[in-house]
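Posting for a labmate who doesn't have an account.
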Amino acid sequence: MSDRFHKPALFTSGMFEAFMGGEDPAQISRVAHETARALLARVRENPDPEVVDRLVAFTDAHGIDALAELWSRSNAKSLPGALWRIYLIRLLIRQDAEGTAYLFQRGTEVLGSIDAVVAGAPDPTGPAEITELADRILRGLFEGDFAVALDRAAAFCRVAAAGAASVADDRDVLDPERASELTTRALRFTRTAEELTACARLWRSDSLD
């Protein structure tokens, strides 16, 4: 397993060959699951802070394309599917920290649940706080309780969904196009929350593969 991962790269070139030239979907799925399992097992067995830091910041340095090639086509209720969604959430937050923080803060005001507490963001939640939350959730996958990290990400998505839906209601008359965009975003957040919650349950039953 150790020969698959070398600093500073995370994956060997051979792992990407399965995606060249329209390979068999079964092969693509196998590579996705193998890389996800190998990566998580290695890091969780020895969570070196320097390695975890590089994993958390991987897309900052290398973009999202490499991970997309590996994991984006995976079933939502699978290990690679879960990892892919957490990385996407972090990317979304970092690309628009101010806008995401606004939606999250609105969600905390309109959602009558403990999801904001579960997510772990301070109140009030600004761009710096929401960015830090994204990093802490991703870090938790590698050096904390994996299921808890998934639950926190799901809670974040539910709060953000509530915020997006609330803002969409505000914009419905004056800016219906923007309201439609926010409604779509709320639905995507809600679906992602459901998928991550399912992944957390599967992890706890040792069934997330």
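Reply:
Got it, the structure tokens are right above this. The two ends are 17 Å apart (CA to CA).
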